[in-house]
Amino acid sequence: MSSSDESELIADQKWDARYFGLINELAEMNASRYEVQTEELLKKRKLKIKFNGASIEFKLTPQGCWFCTDDPRGQQITNSWIRMGWGRSAKRKALPYYFAQAEASTIIDQEE
Amino acid sequence: MTSYKTFKSPLFILSLILINLIASSPFSEATPPLTKCNIKLDNPHYSKSVEIRKGFKAIKVNARSRCNRQMTNLILTVKIHKIGFLRDYTVAHKEVKALRSIFPNTIIKNQKTYVACKNTKTSRYYGEAYATAYIKGERVKTLHVLSEKTITVNCGN
Question: For A67-92, how does the pLDDT look when each residue is reduced to its tens digit (9 = 90+)?
C-alpha cells in the first residue's frame, strides 16, 4: 500500500468515526422525538422537518424510506433511500436511526 | 454441404463487406476523451466504525469523483445491490449533490452509503456508482461503474 493510499484510508476512517459517532449521539439525544416522528411518518407516509436551518423531507415507499434535504446553508446536500422491509414493524425499528442519519448528514454537509 | 451453403450465402458476404468497411473507416480510430473525469468506487467492505460505535455490522461502499474541468451541479450517486434469487435488488441509495462550483481536480466523496446487517444470513453485495454534472453549461453523465468485487458475507438485509 502506498503512503497516499494509507493516508486516504486513515482519513476515511476518521470521517467514518465522526459520521457514525454523530448518528449515535443524535439517536441517543433525540430518542423520544424520533419515536414521535416515526409514528407520524407511519401514519401520514410523508414528513417534513426543520433541522439546523435545513428542511428534510421523509417519504415512505412500500419497502423503505427516502429522505431529501434542502439546505440553503450547506455546501452539499444528501438524498437517500434505504430498504427497510415491507412491514410496519420493520420500518418502526429502522426509522429512528434513519432520522439520526439524515440529521447527521445535514450537519456534515454544512461543515464540508 | 449445408455449411458450404451458409458460407456462400449473400448475407454472409454482405456482413464480411460491412466488417471490412468499418475496420478500414477512419471513424473506427479511438478518439481521446475531452476531459479526464473519473469515478473511483471501492469494493463493499465491513465498516469498522459502525461495529465499534453501534455494536452491529454494516456493509459500506465509498466513491470518489474527480475531474480536470470545473463542474457545477455535481450529483454523485452510490447504490448497494444485493444479489437475489431471481433478480438483484437495491438495498441502499445515496446521492451527494454539490451545491457549489467544483474546481478542477477537486475530489468529491460519497462515503455515506451503507447497509446495516439485520441477521447473519449469507448474502452477496456489490456497489454501483454514477455521476452527472454540468461542464461549461453542458450536462454530462458518467457510465455506471460497478465495484470490482462482489462480496459474500454473513450479513442479511
Answer: 999 988 878 899 999 999 999 999 99
pLDDT at B97 over 80: yes
Mean pLDDT of A5-12: 82
Does the distance separating the beta carbons of A19 and B112 come in below 8 Å?
Answer: yes
Query: How confident is the model at residue A59, as a pLDDT?
Result: 97
Question: What is the average pLDDT score of chain B?
Answer: 83
The pTM of this model reads: 0.83
Q: Degrees (nearest 5) of the Cα angle B141, B42, B139?
A: 10
Angle at which helix A31-44 crosses helix A88-111, to 10 degrees, equals: 120
Run of H or E residues at A40: helix A31-44
Q: Give CA–CA dist A107/A66, Å, rounded.
A: 18
> Diameter of chain B by CA atoms?
73
Q: Of the candidates B109, B107, B98, B150, which has an alpha carbon nearest to the alpha carbon of residue B128?
A: B150
Instruction: Please report where in the chains the cell 454514477 appears, as a residue.
Output: B130
Helix axis angle, A88-111 to A3-29, nearest 10°: 120
CA–CA distance, A56 with A41 (Å, rounded to integer) = 13
Give contacts of B 46-75 with A, CB under 8 A. 47-50, 53-54, 60, 62
Contact A22, A109 (CB under 8 A): no
Q: Which residues of A touch B157 (CB under 8 A)?
A: 83
ipTM of this complex: 0.91
